[in-house]
């Protein structure tokens, strides 16, 4: 049975209580929708732990992981490591996602506006910079190159995957321009309708050569448009090769 808002809240209270009782945890905070009052029935739990100065994050993570499985019904988890921090993402039996990050003492601090300290103290804020347009543009043309070759080889599902990669970069670039969250498509639904219409054209209407070529053409045009909006000099250097991408499929 799918989790409810009540079961999610009850679990979060248990996890916070466990953090307070854990001598190896010096501070804890909520991030995401739970920290900003924007939760709905689909929201997950995002708990940030500051490991004590004499503690070892990997050891704390191991203990908490065992508890998530034996007590709270975890069925799987995955790890993301960024900036020296372990983010462990648990999937529970009721399809609830629980993110617990284990921060070394010296790194723990606010990284964005959605951060609510529950107990303990923090280091000065260390806001994560947004992704750079140059890298996003580079990732977009890289995916477009591979989409072209996949279409030419008749590898249509690979082409779909590559076009999805182009669109992901275009979403981030558009969100950057509009001052929206560029990470993981979180700001995309707040883009103007005209921007969303352009992104929709990058999606193939069917998994076949004709529709894939149409989507690829729209994707390459959109890369040029975004490059021009962010970096005119780079857009100028890309113009010829983007035209070549559109001609050779």
Brief overview:
This protein is an alpha+beta fold and 249 residues long.
Give your account of this protein's structure.
This protein is of the alpha+beta class. It folds into two domains: 5-119, Beta Polymerase, domain 2 (2-Layer Sandwich); 133-247, Four Helix Bundle (Hemerythrin (Met), subunit A), CATH 1.20.120. The protein is built from eight helices and six strands, in the order H-E-H-E-H-E-E-E-E-H-H-H-H-H. Helix 4 runs antiparallel to helix 7, helix 4 (133-152) packs parallel to helix 8 (232-247) and helix 5 packs parallel to helix 7 (209-230). The radius of gyration is 22 Å and the shape is elongated. It comes from Promicromonospora soli. This is Nucleotidyltransferase-like protein. InterPro entries: NT_sf.
The biggest sheet, with number of strands, parallel, antiparallel or mixed sense and barrel status, is: 6 strands, mixed
Q: What is the helix fraction of residues, given as a range? A: 40-55%
Following the backbone from N to C, one meets helices and strands in this order, namely HEHEHEEEEHHHHH
* Whole-number total of structural domains: 2
Determine the N-to-C terminus distance: 47 Å
The residue-averaged pLDDT reads 93
Q: What amount of the residues lies in strands?
A: 15-25%
Name the CATH architecture of the largest domain.
2-Layer Sandwich
DSSP E strands, number: 6
CATH topology of the largest domain: Beta Polymerase, domain 2
Main CATH class of the largest domain: Alpha Beta
Report Rg.
22 Å
Return residue spans where pLDDT drops below 50 for at least 5 consecutive residues: none
Give the overall form. Answer: elongated
Number of distinct helices: 8
Strand order of the largest sheet: 3-4-5-2-1-6
């Amino acid at each position: 049975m799918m989790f409810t808002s009540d079961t999610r809240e009850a679990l979060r209270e248990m996890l916070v209580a466990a953090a307070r009782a854990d001598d190896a945890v010096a501070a804890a905070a909520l991030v995401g929708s739970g920290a900003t009052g924007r939760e709905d029935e689909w929201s997950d739990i995002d708990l940030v732990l500051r490991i004590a100065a004499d503690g070892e994050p990997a050891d704390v993570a191991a203990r908490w992981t065992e508890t998530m499985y034996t007590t709270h019904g975890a069925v799987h988890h995955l790890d993301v490591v960024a900036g020296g921090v372990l983010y462990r993402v648990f999937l529970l039996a009721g399809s609830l996602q629980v993110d617990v990050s284990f921060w070394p003492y010296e790194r723990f601090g606010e990284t964005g506006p959605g951060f609510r300290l529950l107990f303990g103290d923090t280091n000065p804020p260390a806001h994560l910079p947004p992704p750079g347009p140059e890298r996003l543009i580079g990732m977009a043309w890289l995916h477009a190159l591979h989409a072209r070759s996949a279409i030419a080889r008749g590898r249509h599902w690979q082409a779909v995957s590559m076009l999805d990669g182009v669109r992901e970069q275009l979403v981030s670039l558009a969100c950057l321009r509009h001052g929206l969250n560029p990470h993981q498509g979180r700001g995309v639904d707040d883009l103007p309708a005209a921007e969303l219409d352009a992104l929709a054209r990058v999606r193939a209407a069917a998994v076949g050569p004709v529709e894939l070529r149409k989507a690829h053409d729209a994707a390459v045009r959109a890369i040029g448009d975004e490059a021009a909006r962010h970096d005119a000099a780079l857009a100028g250097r890309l113009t010829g090769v983007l035209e070549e991408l559109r001609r050779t499929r």
